[in-house]
Backbone:
């Protein structure tokens, strides 16, 4: 039997790279509020399924600021690794944190797609990691440069995915009761019409009592 290449809560790590307001100001590839909501949904998903989360920041005290508050709230007490290099993989402390998880599958979200996302993705792939870029939780300077960076990473072997696909892939079965309520709550809060549909279906099956 061929093993399906689906991620599981036991085999992947989430990298949140430079999710900082100072860098978000430069994002033009997607509406910033939409991007923030997507990253928060992804962070909540990783927390719900107890994935290791590695957050990293750069220039946090001189330009970029800390991890954006809504994202930090979603990842709890995870402390960001500060670095100077644009490539997380070339920073000894940040790379060591990834290696220490013992997991070879990475989910990557970050700013900006053209540099601080694509550089470590390309480096990790070269070292044999299986990398999925959560494309709707990354932001670039322009739609064109964001798209080109995604294409370059995909050509190198990265898989493109979205935060909702990550959540559904980890949940896989709505009868998994230990994560059902949390997963449903994330969908209802962040998945637009799909979330509205889940809320509607719940209320139709179990109408609120007067």
Residues:
């Amino acid at each position: 039997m061929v093993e399906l290449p689906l991620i599981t809560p036991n085999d992947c790590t989430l990298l949140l790279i430079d999710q900082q307001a100072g860098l978000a100001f430069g994002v033009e590839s997607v509406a910033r509020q939409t991007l923030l909501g997507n990253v928060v949904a992804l962070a909540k998903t990783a927390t719900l399924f107890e994935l290791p989360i590695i957050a990293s920041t750069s220039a946090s005290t001189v330009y970029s600021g800390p991890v954006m508050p809504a994202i930090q709230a979603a990842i709890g007490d995870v402390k960001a690794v500060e670095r100077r290099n644009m490539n997380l993989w070339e920073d000894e402390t940040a790379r060591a944190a990834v290696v220490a998880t013992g997991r070879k599958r990475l989910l990557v979200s970050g700013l900006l797609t053209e540099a601080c996302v694509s550089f470590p993705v390309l480096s990790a792939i070269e070292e044999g990691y299986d990398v999925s870029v959560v494309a709707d939780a990354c932001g670039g300077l322009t739609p064109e440069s964001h798209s080109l960076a995604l294409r370059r990473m995909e050509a190198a072997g990265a898989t493109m995915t979205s935060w909702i696909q990550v959540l559904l892939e980890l949940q896989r079965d709505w009868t998994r009761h230990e994560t059902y309520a949390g997963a449903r709550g994330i969908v209802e809060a962040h998945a637009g019409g799909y979330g509205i549909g889940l809320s509607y279906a719940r209320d139709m099956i179990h109408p609120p009592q007067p």
Observations:
- The longest helix spans residues 32-48.
- The mean pLDDT is 94.
- The chain has one domain: 12-170.
- The domain at 12-170 is CATH 3.40.50.850 (Rossmann fold).
